[in-house]
Amino acid sequence: MTAQKELYALEAITYIPRILALVDRNPLSPTFGCFDKSYWHYKTVDFPSGMYQECVLPLALVYSFRFPGGDVYYGNERVRELVIAGIRYADRSSHRDGSTDDYYPFERALGATCFSLYACTESYMLLGLSDGDIVRFFKKRGSWLLKHNESGRLSNHQALCALCLYNVFLVTGEEEFLEGAKKRIELVLSWQSDEGWFQEYEGADPGYQTFTIDFLAKYYKKSGDERVVEPLKKAVDFASYFIHPDGSYGGEYGSRNTFNFYPHGFEILGKVYPLATQIADRFLLGVKNRKRAYIEDERIFFHFVSNFLQAYLDFNECRTGSLDERGDFEKYFEKAGIYVRKENKRYCVLSLAKGGVIKVFSDGKHIYSDNGLIAKLSNGRLAVTHHVDRYEVSIGKEKVEVSGSFGLVKLRLPTPFKFLLFRLGLLTFGRFSSNLVRRLLQRLLIVGKKSIPIWFRRTFLFEDGLKIVDEIRYISQNKKYRIERLFAGVDHTSIYVVMSNCYQESVLAKWIDYSSSLDELNRSGYLKIERRI
Length: 533
Hints:
The protein contains 17 helices and 16 strands. It folds into two domains: 2-317, Glycosyltransferase (Alpha/alpha barrel); 330-532, no CATH class. Helix 1 (2-13) packs across helix 13 and helix 4 (56-64) runs antiparallel to helix 5. 39% of the residues lie in helices and 17% in strands.
């Protein structure tokens, strides 16, 4: 059990040098405490992203507690100095109203505002600081959160907002922040499906589900608010189906294509709900065997460092039961559109809300994934079968079918001219209408989609192993919708999600090329392909 616990710390400690390499450590620099190295060092961006200031929390944790492999940081006054500098820079780089930007100027991003505020307030309390200027900053940012929201339903952001407001209440003692936290909790709980999942844009995303669980569990630990306990148990029940036999978690079958796993909330909840600890145990197996997702780019990796350290600190010593005790089952989350089947030594997760995205494990090992069909059309556009959509679904005893239309992929890339126009828009109209800009970008990059007249059906047959049958039919004679290349791709995505497209071992599986079968499709207008897994 000690070795199991230390996995959390040892995994996290390896990232501390990387965090210390990001921050401007020069106390005479105007950007002292800035963690956005692209801004202060490389000078390749024209504003600092406020999200990076979340890096203060891992440093505050390794300064305050002795972790395995972390002796050099524990009690180190230079580390403490950088935490305080980071909090102060979060204040200096904010807008006058306390909000902050993430990806573009005047964004006033709720996510970045909350992630960095939670890290700063938590660090402030860990270090036992007493600083009137910093408290005024917390109150200013907390007041902005009381008055503002964001477009789209992202439950994890709202849960984190509640946690931030509760931390501001703990620092200031002012009741308005407590009441604000309670209202956000009510909003989050209202977005929970009776199947246990919390809304993330167009549906259920098991990866972001763990974020929401984590933030609500932290809030529960701090506040003792019993309202969240039963919803959290339902959320954990849902999450338990997506921790795979090899210890990997989530994937492209979720609404936002994420592999995220925040373990701290599960360690907290293990004290009241043993299933949470069983999930954490399976995840630690994946950590040990390098099966976890690696979300490693500079903009993202630090999200997980403090969470692993917190999981170490709150490791639940009472660990009973195992997910291995769960027998064979067939589970269909109809509202989420996700079908899970375990029989003998095979474990299969299938998203019917996304046209038949599938992930399969056997004997505890990943053996197959595909994100549905992806085609290159004669007009150069790409089309996929995995958009979140209302597909025709049929579930029988040994057969599952899903059918619908291909959808176009948006492959818009920036150019200097486009960036110039975007910046001009932000500096004029956009600076006064940040939420409208956000809605337009969401429409452009995430929720907007267009179907085309190419029909598909995916059939999954579970008798005598697993057989997949793909059928395609042209609905239109328009030649621009003729397919020139066709694959069952392992890891392609078609919407913008910052935490998607990470590395997990499953992405190394080979794409299956069906292009040699296209003569039949283009001659008769119909193609049927069968393969056995």
